[in-house]
Design brief:
9-stranded parallel β-sheet
Length: 203
């Protein structure tokens, strides 16, 4: 699907802007998708999601479900209050999330039960700071053997949250509101080094 920069407007619909279910080698590119529940829902393998603009989608800009070997690159996501930028929700593996820009008012990139993914060179900005909540730039929940490298994360309460094991977190720049990286006790064998912390109350 090449939208050639045309707009898909959901008019505050509870549906998905573009939904690819259980296919292979699907590409979604050059789309402007606004005002849906999920801008893009992707249940396919070996896909490409690139050069899209996703705005005002109420749950997620991009939502992957049981997807593998998909590249998510060069997208711009502007999420409203309580919406996530990119979410890998369940058994998503071997995906690459690279060079995306996310302006989010909740969680930027969220992985749950998703292993062996690469999150590289993304820029994430929290627009609305609320010290009473726990928004994070990148979050790993029960997600193992992932690589987080070279990401720039600004103004989230928690820059990177790790509730997982055997992940590598390197060369990220974090300008967090409260804590740069939070690792829960249950997390084991994570490799975290060479990260830069700016204006962080607690690293």
């Amino acid at each position: 699907l090449n939208c050639a920069n045309h707009i898909i407007d959901g008019n505050n619909s509870n549906a998905n802007g573009v939904w690819s279910g259980e296919y292979h080698n699907v590409s979604i590119k050059n789309c402007i998708i606004t005002d849906f529940k999920n801008g893009i829902r992707f249940d396919s393998d070996s896909g490409l999601i690139t050069n899209n603009i996703l705005k005002s989608n109420t749950d997620n800009g991009i939502f992957l479900y049981i997807s593998s070997y998909t590249n998510i690159t060069n997208n711009i996501i502007d999420s409203p209050l309580f919406s996530n930028g990119i979410a890998l929700a369940h058994f998503d593996s071997n995906n690459n999330i690279i060079n995306n820009t996310i302006n989010s008012s909740f969680d930027g990139i969220k992985l749950s039960f998703s292993n062996n993914n690469k999150i590289i060179n993304n820029t994430l900005l929290m627009e609305f700071i609320n010290s009473a909540t726990n928004e994070y730039g990148i979050g790993l929940s029960n997600s193992h053997n992932n690589i987080l490298n070279g990401n720039n994360i600004f103004q989230y309460n928690i820059g990177i949250l790790v509730f997982s094991s055997n992940n590598t977190v390197t060369s990220n720049t974090l300008s967090a509101y409260v804590r740069g990286i939070k690792v829960y006790d249950i997390s084991k064998n994570n490799v975290i080094y060479n990260n830069v912390f700016n204006n962080v109350n607690s690293p």
